[in-house]
């Protein structure tokens, strides 16, 4: 692409004719990463007056210097803004990668931060922790586990990451995010304590973002006197800052796959070694069925430190002879997470001498890598109710709004996107078909970090979307009220370039018509077309139309066309339909009898969408 072909130069008055901050962007066919067009994208980022004011406001906002804000006068958003200055996940990962040559140093640093905060390792033993790691499903496993134990009348703490809408979601008491007031008070108390105990000889005076929140969760759980704390590992396991926990009651490992490969290793076996690092001597641990290689690694890790590791039987074994279990989370893959959660909850109850933990059934010993099989038991009514009542937003979540159905799943690895596509296709097969009029399928996608977006997009191709929409994980172009979702480690042009790259990948895949049959497609539905297709349906174009928007809000406004009864922005931004594809697509979306929107690729993207579609989550 020739420099200037977008007419992206800055103007002193008004906006460029070529692209408006609210418009859909479309890269010319010749655009590629590393081409002169990258300069145009940078010009694009700086040619938006609103975006420019936003970026300057976030970068110029000073962090606490001298005396920090008073906890009595500072607001929740003051606390969040200050928390953001402690680095975001991206820079934390870079820091960890630089230090991983001596990983023990990382855990020692976390122990030092804990001591400076006023706690000792022995204090964490009081929390009766359930420690869970894995590549996919660890958050859902934690949610199932927490809800089961809460159904027994226990007071629960739950630490998870990332958050979707507000950072306080990461720390929950009895399933509810802590209040803004509790978050604010504990934040400033901890922040002041760490500031007061800074050592001039220390190379890092304040913990990074995730470490700070981990410390804060421990303090809150202790003060709130929870009966137990479910703690989700951040990244990996062995060197994750949550692994200063010495005496958990029980540990769990959900399904393993490739993610964070630059940090954890480029094979599932290497990743399994990292995940098995949370095992502790004499502490029971459970895992679901894994591929042979990583399962053998987990077995060896457990044997080396005398950790009793058990393989979870499938959920069908626990259902046998009783009623089928109803899960609050959709998707066939959630059955594996529920099976692990049942074992974790039962083991915790058993370790704490609780009654009513489920009657044992006869079972055969496991022959899989010589791992003993976990107990096969009849789930109690408390367990059944816990599984049924589990809620975990942003994971296989469906919102039905008039003609629009939003399918939200933060899948961001190859295996989790495969599971997401299976769930999405199954949901479409079970939908209520409109009496007349076409149905339209829309993909809203973004991907971040070191993940391979081309591989993820290729998995989504068989869904045959009519429109593919890409946008950064920015809820609005302006940051006002969006402190919880700010990221100081990337620039606006970087995230837009990534979206343009995603669009290029999608266009290339479309041209190649690379739609391998990755799953066994069922036969045609009686009296209808193949089940992958919707009927009645728009004629599928030779290539999916694709668009890039500057933020999530503009993408949702184009997709919904004012037809979502909850998401009703004041007025569409000027220029939203300037691009021919955006204009013609808007007419199609306005006339469609049903619109099915799959939002996936990033939990942060899903969080931004939920912030707009579910305003109550921001209150």
Automatic annotation (TrEMBL):
GO biological process, one term: one-carbon metabolic process
Stated name of the protein: Folylpolyglutamate synthase
Family per record: Belongs to the folylpolyglutamate synthase family.
GO molecular function: ATP binding; metal ion binding; tetrahydrofolylpolyglutamate synthase activity
Cofactor comment: A monovalent cation.
Positions that bind Mg(2+): 161, 232, 260
UniProt cross-references to InterPro entries, sorted A to Z: Folylpolyglutamate_synth, Folylpolyglutamate_synth_CS, Folylpolyglutamate_synth_euk, Mur-like_cat_sf, Mur_ligase_C_dom_sf
Reaction it catalyzes: (6S)-5,6,7,8-tetrahydrofolyl-(gamma-L-Glu)(n) + L-glutamate + ATP = (6S)-5,6,7,8-tetrahydrofolyl-(gamma-L-Glu)(n+1) + ADP + phosphate + H(+)
Assigned keywords, A-Z: ATP-binding, Cytoplasm, Ligase, Magnesium, Membrane, Metal-binding, Mitochondrion, Mitochondrion inner membrane, Nucleotide-binding, One-carbon metabolism, Phosphoprotein, Transit peptide
Localization, UniProt: Cytoplasm; Mitochondrion inner membrane; Mitochondrion matrix
GO cellular component: cytoplasm; cytosol; mitochondrial inner membrane; mitochondrial matrix; mitochondrion
Cofactor: a monovalent cation
Entry binding sites for ATP: 395, 409
Function: Catalyzes conversion of folates to polyglutamate derivatives allowing concentration of folate compounds in the cell and the intracellular retention of these cofactors, which are important substrates for most of the folate-dependent enzymes that are involved in one-carbon transfer reactions involved in purine, pyrimidine and amino acid synthesis.
């Amino acid at each position: 692409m020739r420099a200037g072909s977008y007419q992206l130069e800055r103007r002193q008055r008004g906006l460029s004719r070529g692209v408006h901050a609210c418009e859909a962007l479309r890269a010319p066919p010749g655009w590629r990463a590393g081409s002169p067009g990258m300069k145009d994208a940078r010009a694009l980022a700086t040619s938006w007056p609103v975006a420019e004011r936003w970026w300057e406001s976030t970068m110029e906002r000073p962090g606490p210097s001298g005396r920090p804000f008073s906890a009595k006068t500072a607001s929740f958003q003051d606390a969040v803004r200050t928390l953001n200055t402690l680095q975001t996940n991206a820079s934390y990962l870079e820091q960890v990668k630089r230090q991983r040559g001596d990983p023990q140093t990382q855990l020692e640093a976390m122990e030092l931060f804990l001591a400076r905060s006023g706690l000792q390792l022995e204090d964490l033993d009081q929390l009766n922790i359930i420690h869970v790691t894995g590549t996919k499903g660890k958050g859902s496993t934690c949610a199932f586990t927490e809800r089961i134990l809460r159904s027994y009348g226990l007071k629960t703490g739950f630490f998870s990451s990332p958050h979707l809408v507000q950072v306080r979601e990461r720390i929950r008491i009895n399933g509810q995010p802590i209040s803004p007031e509790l978050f604010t008070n504990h934040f400033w108390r901890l922040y002041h304590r760490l500031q007061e105990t800074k050592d001039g000889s220390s190379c890092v005076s304040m913990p990074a973002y995730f470490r700070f929140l981990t410390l804060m969760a421990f303090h809150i759980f202790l003060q709130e006197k929870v009966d137990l704390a479910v703690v989700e590992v951040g990244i990996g396991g062995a060197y994750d800052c949550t692994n200063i926990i010495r005496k958990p009651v029980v540990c769990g490992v959900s399904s393993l796959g490739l993610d964070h490969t630059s940090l954890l290793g480029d094979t599932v076996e290497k990743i399994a070694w990292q995940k098995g690092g949370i095992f502790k001597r004499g502490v029971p641990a459970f895992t679901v069925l894994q591929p042979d290689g990583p399962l053998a690694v987990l077995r060896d890790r457990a044997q080396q430190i005398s950790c009793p590791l058990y393989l979870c039987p499938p959920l069908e074994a626990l259902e046998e002879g009783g009623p089928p279990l109803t899960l609050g989370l959709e998707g066939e893959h959630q059955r594996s997470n529920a099976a692990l959660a049942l074992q974790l909850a039962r083991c915790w109850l058993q370790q704490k001498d609780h009654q009513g933990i489920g009657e044992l059934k006869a079972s055969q010993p496991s022959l899989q890598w010589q791992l003993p099989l976990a107990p096969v038991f009849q789930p109690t009514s408390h367990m059944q109710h816990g599984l049924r009542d589990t809620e975990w937003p942003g994971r296989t979540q469906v919102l039905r709004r008039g003609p629009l159905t939003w399918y939200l799943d933060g899948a961001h690895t190859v295996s989790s996107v495969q599971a997401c596509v299976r769930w999405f296709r199954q949901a479409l097969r079970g939908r209520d078909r409109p009496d007349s009029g076409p149905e339209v399928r829309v993909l809203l996608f973004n991907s971040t970090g070191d993940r391979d977006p081309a591989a993820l997009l290729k998995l989504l191709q068989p869904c045959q979307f009519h429109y593919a929409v890409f946008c950064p994980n920015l809820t609005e172009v302006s940051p006002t009220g969006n402190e919880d979702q700010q990221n100081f480690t990337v620039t606006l042009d970087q995230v837009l370039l990534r979206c343009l790259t995603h669009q290029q990948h999608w266009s290339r895949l479309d041209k190649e018509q690379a739609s391998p049959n990755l799953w066994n497609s069922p036969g045609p539905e009686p009296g209808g077309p193949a089940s992958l297709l919707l009927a009645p349906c728009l004629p599928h174009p030779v290539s999916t139309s694709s668009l890039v928007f500057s933020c999530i809000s503009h993408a949702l406004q184009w997709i919904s066309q004012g037809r979502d009864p909850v998401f009703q922005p004041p007025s569409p931004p000027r220029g939203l339909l300037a691009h021919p594809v955006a204009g013609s697509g808007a007419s199609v979306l306005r006339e469609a009898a049903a619109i099915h929107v799959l939002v996936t690729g990033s939990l942060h993207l899903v969080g931004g969408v939920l912030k707009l579609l579910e305003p109550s989550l921001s209150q």
